[in-house]
Amino acid sequence: MRKIEHLNLLLKYLKRYKYKYFIGILCLIITDVFVLLKPQFLRRAINAIEARTNLTEIYFYSFMTFFVIFLAIASRYFWRVNIIGAAFHIESDLKRDLFKRLVKLSPKFYQSMTSGDLMARQTEDIQYIRMLSGFGLLASLDTLIISIPSIIIMATINWKLLLLSLIPLPFLSVVFKIFGSLIHKFFLEKQERLSILTEKSRETFAGIQVIKAFSQEENDSKDFSKKNYEHFRKSLKIIRVDGAFDPVIQFFVFISIVAIFWYGGTLIIKGQMDFGSFIAFQEYLHYLIWPVIAIGWVINMLQRGLASLKRLNTIFLTEPEIKNAENAIDIPASSGRIEFKEVWFKYVDDGEFVLKGINFEIQPGETVAFVGKIGSGKTSLINLINRFYDVNSGKILIDGIDIKEINLKDLRKNIGVVPQETFLFSDTIRENIAFGVDKYSDQDLIYSAEVSQVKDNIMEFPLQFDTPLGERGVSLSGGQKQRTAISRAIMIDPKILILDDALSSVDVDTEERILNNLREVIKNRTTLIIAHRISTIKTADRIIVLDEGKIIDLGTHDELISRCALYKRIFEQQQLKEDLDLGL
Ligand code: ADP
C-alpha cells in the first residue's frame, strides 16, 4: 500500500464531521479576510501620517486597523473550536473503532503483536492523527487562504519586488522534501521503540510478583532504562531534524527581507513607491513567513500522521480470521452432539501439525475425558470446538452442522469453557460470574457458586457477591479463582461444558465435592474434561487417549487399563503422585 493511500482511513472520519469542518473553514476564511485587510488600513494610516495634513484620516485608519484585528481575533475563536473540536471527535471515534476491531480479531493476531505495541497504537498514534486532522489541516488551509491573496496583492504593489522576495522558494521546496522523508523514517523508528517500551512496562506490572520473587528489580529496571534510552535516542533524532527545520526556513526568509530592503529602499528614494506601500508589502511578506513555516510544520505533521495511520491500518485492514459465514445458521439451543471428522490442525502455516486426523463422536449428555502427555494436543483440540482457531482440514460438527456454518455467537453461547488459565476482571464477583449473561436471578448466581464450592468463601466477604476483585479489591487464591471460573461457565447454562484442567488448583477434597455437585449439572450436558487426576478422569463415560496429536485409544477406564499401555502408564504415575500428595 502506498504511503498516501493510508489517508483514506482519515478521509472516512473527516467526512463524518464535515459540518463542523465547514463552519470552521468558513470562520477561518473570515479571519483571513480581516487579516488581509489590515495592511491596507495600515498603509493608508502611514501615508496619512507622512502627509502630516489630515488628523481625522489618521484616526480613522488607525481605528480601522484596530477594528479588523479585533474581528480577526473574534472569528479565530470559532474556527479553533470547530476544527480542533472535530479533531477530538475523530480521536475518540478512532479509539472506539480500533477497540471494536481489536476485540474481533482472533488469538492468532494477538500472538503476532504485543499488548504494549497495541497500547502505543491506541494512544500515541491516534494522538498524532488527531493533530493532523486538527492543526495540520487548519495550517494547510490557512496557508492557502493567506498566501495566494497576499502574493496577488504584493504583485499589485510592485511585481518586481515580489519576484525578488520569492527567490528562496525553490530552495525551500528541496529543504521540505529532504526534511519530510527524514522525519517520516525517524518517526516510524521512534514509534516502534515506543511500542517496545510500553510492552516492557506492561509486562513488568503484570509479572511484578515473579520479578520480586527472583529479586530481579535491578535487572528489570536496567532493561527498562535500556529500552527507554533507545526510545529517547530515536526521539532525539527527530528533534535534531525538527530543530534544524525552523532556522533553515528563517534563513531563507531573512534573505528575502534583506533583498526587499535593498530594492524597496531604492524605489522609495527614487520616488517610485510610497512609504505606506513599502510597509504594507513588508506586512504581506510577514504573512508569507507563517505559511512557509506552516508548510514545513504540516509536512512534519503529515509524515507523522501518515506513519501513525499506517500503524493503525495494519490493524484495521486485518480481517478477523474467525468470522461468521454468509448465511450463518442459528442454533439457540444445541443438543450437544459433537463430531470430529478427519480433523487436521496446525498453529503456523509452515509449522508441524498439532492434531493429525482426529475422528470421534460424542453423544448429547455424554462426559468424555481427554488424557495424554503434556503437548499431546488436548487443549488445541478443545479450542477448536468454540472456534478460537479453525481447522486446516476436516470438519467439526455440532448437532450435525459444520461449526463454520453456525452463528459464532450462538456457537459460543452453547459452550461454557473453564480455561486452563483463569482470568478474572477487576470487577465485582457478581459481574465476574454473570459475565455475558443479561438476565439472571440471585438464585442462579448462588446455585452456580454452590456447585463450584465457592459460595461459602464469597459469603465470608463483607460485600459478598458485590465484593470487588483485582487491584482495588480482594485477591482470591488460585483455587478460589478456578472455582469462580467454573461458576461463570455454569452461569451461561451451556449445553456443552468444557473443563480444561479446571480443577488443578483445588485440593483433592474440594475436587471431590465439586465433582459430586457437577454430576447434577452435567447430567443433561455434554461435558469434555481435560484433567490429570485419575479421580476426575474416572468419572467420565469415555476416555480419549491422545499421543502426539493422534487418538491412540478410546474407551472406559477399565477397558483402557487392560489394553492401552500409555493410559496404564499415565494412570500409574498419577496414582503414585496422588499417594505421595496424601502422604501414603
Ligand atoms: P496439551 O493440552 O495436551 O498439553 P497443547 O494442545 O497445549 O497440548 O499443545 C499441543 C502442541 O501445540 C504443543 O506442541 C504446543 O507447543 C503447541 N502449541 C500450543 N499452543 C500453541 C500456540 N498458541 N501457538 C503455537 N503452538 C502452540
Please supply descriptive tags for the structure shown above:
single chain; 584 residues; alpha/beta; six-stranded mixed beta sheet; four-stranded antiparallel beta sheet; 19 helices
Structure report:
There is one protein chain. With 584 residues, this protein is an alpha/beta fold. The chain contains 19 helices and ten strands. The strands form two sheets. A six-stranded mixed beta sheet has the order 6-7-8-3-9-10, sandwiched between helices. A four-stranded antiparallel beta sheet has the order 2-1-4-5, covered by helices on one side. A hairpin with a 2-residue loop joins strand 9 and strand 10 (550-555). Helix 5 packs antiparallel against helix 9. The model has no long low-confidence stretch (mean pLDDT 85). It binds adenosine-5'-diphosphate. Residues 111, 347, 354, 372, 374-380 line the site of adenosine-5'-diphosphate (ADP).
Helices and strands in order, then pairings?
Layout: H1 7-16, H2 18-51, H3 55-104, H4 107-112, H5 115-165, H6 169-206, H7 208-213, H8 217-269, H9 275-316, E1 338-345, E2 355-362, E3 367-372, H10 378-385, E4 393-398, E5 401-402, H11 408-413, E6 415-418, H12 429-433, H13 442-451, H14 455-460, H15 478-491, E7 496-500, H16 508-522, E8 526-530, H17 534-538, E9 542-547, E10 550-555, H18 557-563, H19 565-581
Parallel strand pairs: 3-8, 3-9, 6-7, 7-8
Antiparallel strand pairs: 1-2, 1-4, 4-5, 9-10
The chain binds adenosine-5'-diphosphate (ADP).
